[in-house]
Amino acid sequence: MEFKDIINESYTVKRFTGGQLSNEKVNELFEIIIMSSSSFGLQPYKIKVIKGSKLKEKLSKFSLDKEQIISCSHLLVFCANTDLDCQIENYELLMREEEIPEEKIQSYLHRVKNFVNNLHFEEKLSWAQRQTYIAIANAISGAKSLGFDSYLIEVFQTEKLKKALDLPYDLFPTALVAIGISEDKNPEKIRFNKKDIFF
């Protein structure tokens, strides 16, 4: 499927069939998400994968009772990771495993640490969430490219969701992406004209 077709055919799912996606398909999507671009390559996010129906029912109550959470195959909870120092350390280890020359590693560490050390907590969270949305966009397009559908959820009770998932202090739920097989027909899209967007 051409990328243009993927974008044109993606839409907001009203209801999933409740069927389960194969592990093969889900893992293919994970590979797409992992390859998402991010500043400095840090990928400052973690993704909680939920399959169990009881937990999905509980989480739907914190998300305006979204039926898509209950009927989807998998629910992906995208969490921004504010522990950037740890992420930098982990990335340094990856660079060393790949035998990147030391001068390049040191140059990278100088640049990224200089950037991160100048951020207040709120700025770290905002930056991490912006990076997370790049992965979210790829998850949505990736699902369609693999032959299934998705639904993005941005309104939820953050603290209750965080407590229900027992998330550590440095992970902040940013958006939920439900994936599965749609029960709907692809509706006609209504979009603004190019002249309304580009100037």
How is this structure best described in words?
This protein is of the alpha+beta class. The chain has helices at about 5-10, 25-35, 55-60, 65-70, 85-95, 100-115, 120-145, 160-165, 195, and strands spanning about 45-50, 75-80, 150-155, 170-180. It has a single domain, classed as NADH Oxidase (3-Layer(aba) Sandwich). It has nine helices and four strands. The chain starts with a helix and ends with a helix. About 30% of the residues are buried.
Strand content bin = 5-15%
Radius of gyration: 19 Å
How many structural domains does the protein architecture include?
A: 1
Mean pLDDT: 96
* Helix content percent band: 40-55%
**Which class best fits the helix and strand makeup?**
alpha+beta
Helix run count: 9
How does the overall form come out from the CA principal axes?
globular
CATH-defined superfamily: NADH Oxidase
SSE string, helix = H, strand = E?
A: HHEHHEHHHEHEH
Poorly predicted runs of 5 or more residues: none
**Could you name the CATH topology?**
NADH Oxidase
Major sheet: size, sense and barrel closure?
4 strands, antiparallel
Write a brief structural summary:
The protein has 199 residues and is of the alpha+beta class. Helices cover 50% and strands 15% of the residues.
